[in-house]
């Protein structure tokens, strides 16, 4: 069962909408433009990642997961350019009713509350449309900006996971956060 998402306008005229295969070039351009900005927070990327072909393959994978009801890949669009992305992934049903959330912003769009606005929209969708009970997110200990977005969005710190993800070429600890969506 594919997950639907109605596009919505965020502050500053940014539009949050479903990712499509037509976003491949825009995402490649955005990732290339933000390569240095995102490098400390991302896995090591191949050169193909920064191409339209590489992004097209990633988008197809994410859309297949969306069609199966286990992911919701979104982009933030500023006019004709990609300003960032936010994804729900690893959606688990049954007794868990949970998902993970991750996001990134173009360096020229940081510090304006855009990540918080996008995250609020995704939290509402997860709770109201998908009926999820819990969202989880992780941030590197040095990524104070991302942690601040999570706290402002009602996430609570639940601990530190040692060697959680391979980021910037090495296994790194992450601070874990959760938000319970229903009382």
UniProtKB/TrEMBL annotation:
Domain N-acetyltransferase as annotated: residue spans: 14-182
Pfam family, one: Acetyltransf_3
Domain of life: Bacteria
Similarity remark: Belongs to the acetyltransferase family. RimJ subfamily.
GO MF: protein-N-terminal-alanine acetyltransferase activity
Protein name: Alanine acetyltransferase
PANTHER family in alphabetical order: [RIBOSOMAL PROTEIN US5]-ALANINE N-ACETYLTRANSFERASE, GNAT FAMILY, PUTATIVE (AFU_ORTHOLOGUE AFUA_3G00765)-RELATED-RELATED
Keyword Nucleotide-binding carried by entry: no
Keyword Transferase: yes
Keywords tagged on the record: Acyltransferase, Transferase
A single GO cellular-component term on record: cytoplasm
């Amino acid at each position: 069962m594919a997950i639907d998402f109605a596009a919505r306008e965020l502050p500053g005229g940014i539009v949050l909408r479903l990712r499509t295969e037509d976003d491949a070039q825009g995402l490649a351009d955005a990732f290339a433009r933000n390569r240095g900005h995102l490098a400390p927070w991302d896995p090591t990327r191949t050169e193909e990642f920064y191409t339209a072909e590489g992004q097209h393959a990633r988008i197809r994978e994410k859309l297949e997961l969306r069609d199966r009801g286990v992911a919701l890949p979104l982009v933030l669009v500023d006019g004709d350019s990609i300003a960032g992305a936010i994804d729900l992934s690893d959606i688990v049903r049954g007794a868990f009713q949970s998902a993970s959330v991750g996001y990134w912003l173009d360096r020229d769009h940081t510090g304006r509350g855009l990540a918080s606005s996008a995250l609020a929209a995704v939290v509402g969708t997860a709770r109201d449309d998908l009926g999820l009970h819990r969202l989880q997110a992780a941030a590197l200990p040095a990524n104070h900006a991302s942690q601040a977005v999570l706290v402002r969005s009602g996430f609570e710190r639940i601990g530190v996971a040692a060697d959680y993800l391979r980021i910037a070429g090495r296994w790194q600890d992450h601070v874990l956060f959760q938000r319970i969506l229903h009382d």
